[in-house]
Amino acid sequence: LTQARAGIISTVEVLKVMEAFVNEPNYTVWSDLSCNLGILSTLLSHTDFYEDIQVFVRDVFSPIGERLGWDPKPGEGHLDALLRGLVLGKLGKAGHKATLEEARRRFKDHVEGKNILSADLRSPVYVTVLKHGDSSTLDTMLKLHKQADMQEEKNRIERVLGAISQPELIQKVLTFALSEEVRPQDTVSVIGGVAGGSKQGRKAAWKFVRDNWEELYNRYQGGFLISRLIKV
């Protein structure tokens, strides 16, 4: 990928190498693949190839997704649980039909209190239903945020809210970021989630930061959060 970014080789060569990892069992390798595909997705979101790269993600990640399944297997290690969350989140965001359907089913059971999601499945399920959700999905997520007893759960929800796609809902998430519902130190996570969520989110987050720059700057002064905000 570094060679492709430097213009030495074609990105097509990178994708061919990625395809060769389809039977890879290692979490660290998949994490790297996921990160690099994320970079490519971001670049291609401004082109006609965005849908093609989503198809590629589904093709590469679905065999490992089917192998892992949704539920832990006996004797599994911590890295298997991390890998499951990573793979399901990637497939869900890319619109893999079976993953989306199962995520919606499990999310409904979770919200209704029938079957509470395990901690390692919450982020991938939340991000999947939001990415392909509507205003009622966002309202449900904000309600879960309000009801959460643990700060860890609040932060988990804050990080994924930016996955929502519709422009008016993106604005709602950005407004929420500066509300009293979100701790000042966590506002950056919400804005960063929007900036990384989609092409529309990136533009909206950039405009929002410029429009609210004075308030954000006064809030964080010269601290590390302002530099993190600028980076995202």
Automatic annotation (TrEMBL):
Belongs to the peptidase M1 family. This is PSA aminopeptidase. One of its GO terms (molecular function) is zinc ion binding. Keywords: Aminopeptidase, Hydrolase, Protease. The keyword Hydrolase applies. Residues 4-231 form the ERAP1-like C-terminal domain. GO terms for biological process: peptide catabolic process; proteolysis.
